Sequence to fold (204 residues):
Amino acid sequence: MTSAGHGLTDPPTFDAIVLAGGRARRLGGVSKAEVEVGGTALLDHALAAVAGAAQVVVVGPPDVARPGVVTVLEDPPDGGPVAGIGAGVAHLRDDGPELVVVLACDVPGAGRVLPALLAAVGGADGARMVGAEGRPQHLVAVYRRTALRSALDALPDLHGAAVHRLVGGLHLVDVPDEQGATADADTWADVERLDAALSDRIEP
Fold:
């Protein structure tokens, strides 16, 4: 894997898959997509981040659906992020852009780094954010559609598969998260920290 210097230019056209399912056990089983951070639901933060997409597919239960946005659910449900990515890819138009953003709904700062991700892909199979302690963020990433589909097809079963297995054979550019933008809302303590940080950002 390589690291990227990333001067920003106009980002290329892309489709987007927003993952908004899961049981959110560490949040007491609430709908994580509807948890508010900085006065806005996490799913709506994610949709704002990918507002420039040619097509957006939300993968999650029907009750998180937003007007005008395609919402699908993996079959069987609760299949994990790889099954969710598979369901999302299956509902993208075949004639869409080559780049596909994959974004977990619980990363409200993702919009700040998406342009850098799109600019970093170059000739690689994709680009992913690398967060604190060098942890790769495969769900804050952009992939080439052909590479992503090939990786999905290579797995014998998407249900319950680990994301690192899906992307293990791909050449991905690493984009360091220098802004803390990939902090996610896994626990209520995380939600409180993100809420405070985002509330500070939007104060006049």
Remarks:
- Confidence is low (pLDDT under 50) at residues 1-9.
- The longest helix spans residues 188-202.
